[in-house]
Amino acid sequence: MPRVTSADVARESGVSRTTVSYVLNAKAGVVITEATRRRVLEAAERLGYTPSAAARALRSGRSDLVLCVLPDWTVGPVIDTLIDHLTTSLAEHGLSVLVHSGRGSRPLAELWRAVTPCAVLGLSPFAEAEARAMRQAGILVVGTALDEDPHPETFAVPQGAIGRLQAEFLAARGHRVLAYAAPGDDRLAAFADRRLAGVRLGCDALGMPAPLVEPVELSVGSASAAVARWRAGDQPVTAVAAYNDEVALAVLAGVRAHGLRVPQDVAVIGVDDIPAARLAAPALTTVWQAIDAQAQYLADSVVAALAGGDLPVRPDDVFHVVERDST
């Protein structure tokens, strides 16, 4: 079905396209009778007319579209929560979110030039040349980083600090031999490597041996094999820092498969505090991340920048341990 245009509205209402444009765009300083205005609006509604986003962008100087770029990561509860909160917050300000996955070979520049967003949000840092090109095109660039970042519009949750907190928490409960349950998906290496480095730093600072690292798929068989290797030898592992809650839940299943008890034989801590963490048996200790606060900060940064205001205040509490029965 062909798209309804302003020309169709003009024919239907019996007025000129110029008059239709004045009415539909609420043009100031133009005298139009109430009867004519009503006739145009009724014709537009009858035909199902919606203004072109591209034309709207040309008139206003910017679109109402925010492009959210996802790297080639697996999408789970955390990303779902962030996007849901971000979309809801921006919608309150009349902004729509287009989510783009970084998978595939198409250059990002092709996309942002085609859709002309008012802002681009990155869930990982953009290449400097890419960010510079977008800014030069008048597009606001806002993003997140996995480490501390010098750009004021970037929200950073240092992943290494999360791993170190896991190690310190387990050590404070008397554990001296730790393991690290890494994810089985290589696409998560950017997060996992930083968190593992933090666990290693925490162990080293406390005079403990380096953690024993095993990849753990989300299956009982994979987790059981990892637990067998961790428990072998003269100094068996007594606590596991997992990459995230999903991996930690797999570790719980692997520990049970060996007839071991949690936390008496093996303690387990995850990251993210997903809903399933509270329903695990035993309930999972985890490191909560401020996903809602991160999404709100990004949304507020976009709105403030578009309005020419100051950047919002960064939240202070971006992660902390939620202690439950698994430790």
Automatic annotation (TrEMBL):
Q: Which residues form the HTH lacI-type domain?
A: 4-60
Give one GO term, molecular function aspect.
transcription cis-regulatory region binding
Pfam families attached here? LacI (PF00356), Peripla_BP_3 (PF13377)
- Does Flavoprotein show up as a keyword for this record? no
Where is the secretion signal located?
none
UniProt keyword DNA repair, yes or no: no
What are the UniProt keywords, alphabetically? DNA-binding, Transcription, Transcription regulation
* InterPro entries reported in the protein's UniProt record: HTH_LacI, LacI/GalR-like_sensor, Lambda_DNA-bd_dom_sf, Peripla_BP_I
Entry protein name: Transcriptional regulator, LacI family
Q: Which organism is it from?
A: Cellulomonas gilvus (strain ATCC 13127 / NRRL B-14078) (Cellvibrio gilvus)
